[in-house]
DNA sequence: TCCTCTATGTCAAAATCCTGACATGGAAGA
DNA sequence: TCTTCCATGTCAGGATTTTGACATAGAGGA
């Protein structure tokens, strides 16, 4: 359609909105907005949901590990964890047996809340996936991965 | 490589980090971080740079139009414009001749600053683009676009 | 053992961004 | 004409996130 890309362009592109970075930000912003709208009905923010999802997958993750996995700073993740802890969705020991890392775990309430939120988020992701030809999905995933790795992500 | 995707999975995926949304966020975060590092040397933030780039392409854009194009709220863009205005990189009339929209324009200083910053940002984008097979680049752009549109972006 | 290095958790301060709200200006329709 | 509706710019407040800094705990080497 709009791939009127000339061969060997002197510049990456003329129109800013045609840049990969712009498209990337647009897609990420759209996803973030859709997730925000859905998660609000479940009383969760996007970082909180991401945190619950990560802890469900890998129980015992520490604050710093969660921060790296969610692409935020330790300080930001700390307030997220505090909120989840106050809401009774996760537990964290006050002292650590090994090092300073405090392993976090989901509570049964946290697991329940995650179950509901996950359904809503998966519906959003399904809508997003449905927009790309199925035979290109795997390539899209690997390309996103390579781009992130190329920038030290 | 890692596309050990079974046919017709009951759930979109088991591992969170395999989800499209997670990859999208990872790539966007890596790009944002790399741009932040580069733009800091030019005394610009990412929203400020985006604003300059948009104004170079489409002079006379109003605050609200810039906000939509940069995926932020009008209020956020307003403070960005204020900063650029105080730095003497853009100009905005205090009164409007038609409606309430105040058209913004780059100053010569703004154009100069943009030139330097653009080189740094383009280098980052080139590194990112180099990571994906050239024959898949066009498809990647359209797929990102379709995903954003599917979510009302 | 002692020293250095790295990683973690945490605090304080600032910057950034968003939500809610309000007044103004133009457009569309009765 | 008048009225309703929408878009824009702006203000105030709060929420979120980041930057900078500090103390602590473990690993590795001299």
From TrEMBL, chains A, B:
* Residue stretches making up the HTH marR-type domain: 17-149
| Any one Gene Ontology BP term | response to stress
The family database entries (Pfam families) matched by this protein are listed as: MarR_2
Gene Ontology terms, MF aspect: DNA-binding transcription factor activity
* Lineage: superkingdom: Bacteria
- InterPro entries per UniProt: HTH_MarR-typ, MarR/SlyA-like, WH-like_DNA-bd_sf, WH_DNA-bd_sf
Tell me the protein's name: MarR family transcriptional regulator
Organism, scientific name? Streptomonospora mangrovi
